[in-house]
Amino acid sequence: MSRPFRRAPRALIALTALALAASSLSACAAASDAEGGESSQTASDTYPLTVEHVYGETTITEKPERVVTLGWYSLDVVAALGEVPVGVEDFSWGNVDTYLPWFKDKVEELGGELPEVIQFTDAGEYDFEQILALAPDVILANHSGISETDYKRLTEIAPTVAFQKSAWASDREQLTLSVGSILDKEEEAQQLLDDADAAIAATAEAHPEFEGIVFTYGWFLGEGETALGLYLPRDPRVPLLEELGFVSSPDVDALESTTKEFYANVSLEELGDIESQFHIGWSNTPEDVSHTLADPLISRWAPITQNSYYFFEDQRLAWATTAPSVLSIPSTIDDLADALASAVPSTN
User: Fold this and answer.
1) How far is CA 60 from the centre of its chain?
2) Which end of the chain is more exposed for a tag (fewer CB within 10 A), N or C?
3) CA atoms of 12 and 1, how far apart (whole Å)
4) What is the DSSP letter of 223?
5) Which tens digit of pLDDT belongs to each residue from 252-278?
6) Measured at the alpha carbon of residue 302, what is the angle toward residues 299 and 307, in degrees to the nearest 5?
7) Interhelix angle for 186-206 vs 172-182, to 10°?
């Protein structure tokens, strides 16, 4: 698996890759809602809907029935809104097999058929022929890393919505309301957001020990690497932790303007300058964690020295923080908090 956390079969390539939409222009009140604006339109006059994103504008003329999602996040929102995509990416990684568990459970609850998994070519491109064969009415790549070339090829198949500004970065409220607008289910989307927010707030209240702890979130140190990747505030992982009471490291926040990526690579020689009381990471294997902690420079970093760190070895929870959606949050927030709480006491 390369990093940071991106596409799924390559989530392993990327999750480390590991590793947005809707402003309707003036003409589209529904999209304005997606950005938090006010709408004078009703559901009956939602379409045509024009969505603005990093590669321009996409107009959707009628309610989509066949949805393909690329990247992460959007599939959860589509399912949470009661629809089943016809194509999604593969999320296999560690103890996660093909589909994210909360997504699979929701599809089964809806009585739907699990969607086809989008494949990649040997050249690392989406299998555009496969996507074409799925005959989608819309392609949602709101949280993805699609290139402009990908976007142009996808728009030849169906109206395609790309990410808002930065690849693999999105805001839960904006993305959820955007997808809700596209599916003409904006009120339902708002309710889902309210429920997710309430679940997080209840969990935060149950874990006052998180309050005020300065944290960093990154990944493990690979063989031969001389820098540690840390997620920036634009990455959904960081705001989720903040909602639980943690405080993003100001030294990481300061790196936000230095890159277009959703993460920053901090050289190990400079890691000691990064303020952190609690470090969170993910790994493929326990050996990844051992190798990371054994590095002489990392071992001298404050949170490691103070035994105040947590590495996700449950890939389900790592996924849950990677794209915290209105579907994954109710399903995992308690397990996530319990996992972090098991390591936080050493900090306080």
Assistant:
1) 24
2) C
3) 4
4) T
5) 999 999 999 999 999 999 999 999 999
6) 70
7) 150
Q: Which amino acid is at 118?
A: I
The pTM score is 0.88
Per DSSP, the residues of 230-282 read: EE-TTSTHHHHHHHTT-EE-HHHHTTGGG-SSSEEEEEGGGGGGS--SEEEEE
**Could you check whether 49-184 and 200-342 share the same CATH topology?**
yes
Distance (Å, rounded) from C-alpha 151 to C-alpha 275? 39
Closest-CA residue to 318 (of 330, 328, 308, 303) = 328
User: Where does the pLDDT of residue 188 fall: very low under 50, low under 70, confident under 90, or very high at 90 and above?
Assistant: very high
Residue 2: pLDDT band (50, 70, 90) is: very low
- The reported pLDDT for the residue numbered 44 is 52
The amino acid that residue 136 corresponds to is P
Domain boundaries of the chain, sorted by first residue: 49-184, 200-342
Nearest to 55 by CA among 174, 136, 160: 160
Amino acid at site 281: G
For the domain covering 49-184, report its CATH number. 3.40.50.1980
| Fold type of domain 200-342 | Rossmann fold (3.40.50)
Q: What angle do CA 316, 320, 321 make, to 5 degrees?
A: 125
Place of tokens 């992982």: 237
Token readout for 47 is 């379409």
What CA–CA distance (Å, rounded) separates 288 from 281?
A: 10
pLDDT digits (tens, 9 = 90+) for 33-83: 333 333 334 445 889 999 999 999 999 999 999 999 999 999 999 999 999
The C-alpha angle with vertex 44 and arms to 39 and 50, in degrees rounded to 5, equals 55
Tokens read off for 96:
């996660």
Q: Which two tokens stand for residue 321?
A: 């923080």
Q: Is the dihedral of CA 150, 152, 156, 158 positive or negative?
A: positive
- At residue 52, the 3 state secondary structure works out as strand
